Structure formats: C-alpha cells, structure tokens
Amino acid sequence: MSKKLNIGLFGFGIVGQGLYDITVSRNLNLEFKKIAIKDATKERTLPSHLFTTDKWEILNDPEINTIIELINDANAAYEIVTYALKNGKNVVSANKKMIALHLEELVQIQKENGTSLLYEGAVCGSIPIIRNLEEYYDNELLYAVSGIFNGSSNYILSKVFNENQSYNDALKKAQDLGFAETDPTLDVGGYDAKYKVVIAASHAYGIFANPDDILNIGIQNLQNSDLKYAREKGQKLKLVPVAKKQNDKEVSIYVLPKLVKKEDFLFNVENEYNGVSVQAAFADQQFFFGKGAGGHPTGAAVFSDISALRYDYRYEYKKALIEEKINFNNNEVIEVYLRYNDEDLINKLHFIDIEERFSSKDYHYVVGSIKLEDIFKAKNLILEDGAFIADTGNYIAS
Ligand SMILES: NC(=O)C1=CN([C@@H]2O[C@H](COP(=O)(O)OP(=O)(O)OC[C@H]3O[C@@H](n4cnc5c(N)ncnc54)[C@H](OP(=O)(O)O)[C@@H]3O)[C@@H](O)[C@H]2O)C=CC1
Ligand SMILES: N[C@@H](CC=O)C(=O)O
C-alpha cells in the first residue's frame, strides 16, 4: 500500500488548476489539505475554506507531508521549498528558474534532511526527460542533450513562420493560452530554456553550472528578413538550448536560435510542443516529443512526481557522484548567421572566420565562425544593435 500524501499546494494558476483537474479524475491515496495563493480576492473554482494567503498555515502543519510548489515567484518559491525540505516535507516543483539557480544547494539540503525534491514539470512540460536522464541513461555516456525546451517561443516562431502572424500577436496568444511566463522576456530571451537545460545537464553530466555563466540569446530581435533567409534555404528557425560534450572533461551549454534543416527532428516540432534530442554513445540518437507548456500537460508531469513520492522516489544525481568531474566552459566554436545594423558590431565580435557576407541598403548579414565566449561577452552589444544571431548548425572542423 502506498503512503498517504497530505498535500499543501502553493499556487492555483494555470499549472495548479491543471494539476487539480487531473488529480480529481484519479483515485490516488492523497488529499489537498490547503492551497496557498497570493490574492485572496480572486474568484476560485474551489470552496474558499481550502485557500490561504499565509504560507505558515501549510509549512507548519504537521499533518501535511508533501508540498507542491507551483507559484510564479522564484524568490518566494526558494523560501518555501528550502523550508519544507529542511523540515521533513517532500516537495514537487515546476519552478525551473528557482531550481536552476539553486540546484547544488537543493541537492545538498535533500541529502542532509533525507527529503526529496522532484521537478519533472520544470523541464519541457509533459516530456519525462528528467526521469529518463536519471534512470534510463544513468550508466550511458551522453554526448549531447538539446532541442526545443520553450513552448512560448516555439509557438511564436510557428505562428510567424507558418502563418505570417505578427510577432506581437503571436506572443499575446501564447500569453493568453497560459504558456508564457509572467515576464515573457524569460521565454523569448532564452532564459527559460537556459534554466531547463542547466537542470537537464545536471542529470546528464553531473554538473551544476551557474546559469549566469551561460550564453542565452533568444528570438527578441527576429525580423522578417531572418525568416526570409531561413525560408530561402528550406530551413526553419527554432530556439535551441544545447548541452554538448566537447571531450571527456568539458561540456558546452548555450541557448541560441538555430537554423534547422528539414531532416532534423526539430523541423516538425511546432506550436507549444517541445522536442528533446539525446545523443548517447551506445543508444545513439533518441528523440522525445510532447507538449512543453500548458496547465494539463505540465500538471500531468507534476502528477507523475506526486505519484512517485507515494513510493519515496528521489533523484540520486548518480552522474554527480562519479569521480571524473566534467566542467562547463564557453570554448566551443560554432558557425552563426548574424543579421546586424551597425558595421562596427562585426569588428567588435572577433569572428575567427567569415565565410559569407551580404549587404544591401537595409539588410546586412555575415555567416562565420566564432567562439561562444566571444558571443557571451558581446551579448548586450548584439541585443542593443537589434541584431539577430542564429546557430547555422554547420559543423566546424577544429
Ligand atoms: N504555464 C506553464 O505552461 C508552465 C509553468 N511552469 C512553471 O509553473 C509555475 C506556475 O506557473 P503558472 O501556473 O503558469 O503561473 P500562474 O501565474 O498562472 O499562477 C501562479 C500562481 O501562484 C500564486 N502565487 C504567486 N506568488 C505566491 C506566493 N508568494 N504564495 C502563494 N501563492 C503565490 C498566484 O496566486 P494568485 O492566484 O492569487 O495570483 C497564482 O495562483 C511557474 O514556476 C512556471 O514557471 C512550468 C511549466 C509550464
Ligand atoms: N513559459 C514556459 C512554460 C513551460 O515551462 C514555456 O513557454 O515553455
């Protein structure tokens, strides 16, 4: 018989409500004791006695043994999650920002307190990638984990590319559908994808990389000329996080738009769907596909974690325990397409090589190879110029 879970839920927005809908349709040995929200005046779909704005009513209730954290505030989430884990309560969270920023500490807290933090819903919504990295690939040598990790930016790219919708209209729809973060800069700027790939990399390679050290440039400067460039090449633009082994000891992690070729699995991943490609030494390439955002898909991943907690499941971070440490750096050289406005930007970027250059009255671009570190250092210059940069995906011989 599984353990009874008495749940304290934090957040009753898109994901909280989605999780609740799923839970009532199943007959598990669990009960929602209390739900913490922020705004006591909002109308709710459940009786008011279930709700509280006082987090201590949940955190200090000895009957509540499980905390489900689904709020849209990473700082408050950190306080809630660490307090719960330190005080004997297991936690499920979907807060990728909070998890990526504090992962090493969260692992330590679990170890010291014998508690468990699960977060499948934090990475690629409904796709069970964390559990697979943790369990299925635990002894497999992984070369790369990459894909489409953000539903909102993929939704926008699909709408502007396939249906000629405007960027702003598509973003507004992604927000209305509940896919976007409260601050959508996190989605379109590639931060959300970066937090997710940092979490995935900890399970794939055993490294706890600091998100602040990782390059992320998103689709915020996308223009019609960039879409036209991709179309003319028979390619699509996607926002792609990458965590890739350079050799036995080094991994590069970055998030950039990518020119995706027809034969790539990501080519057909549209709207809020995500796709995760795992390149393994022996299993070779495997591809996971599913909804990356939305209340029910994400709620389903949270529900699966809750179900796993009934049997005291915990992540073991096996790859972090192995002796040969792997380090993250930005030394990799990649080939990029860069559409820019000010010629001076090109001089400041330290391209290793420029293979193609085009300039007309109002459209200038180069295709060339450049070190990730140099893009990282010039990120603000690139964004302020209004430039758009994309990984061409072409192999650079070293
Ligand atoms: N939406 C999605 O598709 C996905 C979201 N996520 C993550 O899930 C989390 C929730 O997202 P989502 O449901 O979309 O967000 P919403 O904005 O829809 O809901 C947020 C909820 O959190 C509550 N809240 C905010 N601050 C506090 C606080 N300090 N204490 C208690 N409750 C609080 C809000 O209360 P009130 O109702 O009173 O405003 C609201 O109910 C985020 O971390 C997000 O990144 C992960 C995967 C997918
Ligand atoms: N804002 C996120 C929600 C899920 O993680 C996204 O668009 O993917």
From TrEMBL:
Presence of the UniProt keyword Translocase in the record: no
InterPro entries per record: Asp/hSer_DH_NAD-bd (IPR005106), HDH_cat (IPR001342), HDH_CS (IPR019811), NAD(P)-bd_dom_sf (IPR036291)
Assigned keywords, A-Z: Amino-acid biosynthesis, Methionine biosynthesis, NADP, Oxidoreductase, Threonine biosynthesis
Pfam family for this entry, one: Homoserine_dh
Pathway membership, UniProt: Amino-acid biosynthesis; L-threonine biosynthesis; L-threonine from L-aspartate: step 3/5; Amino-acid biosynthesis; L-methionine biosynthesis via de novo pathway; L-homoserine from L-aspartate: step 3/3
Reactions catalysed, as given in the entry: L-homoserine + NADP(+) = L-aspartate 4-semialdehyde + NADPH + H(+)
Uppermost EC category: oxidoreductase
E.C. no: 1.1.1.3
PROSITE patterns xref list: HOMOSER_DHGENASE
Family the UniProt entry places it in: Belongs to the homoserine dehydrogenase family.
Record-given protein name: Homoserine dehydrogenase
Species annotation: Pedobacter alpinus
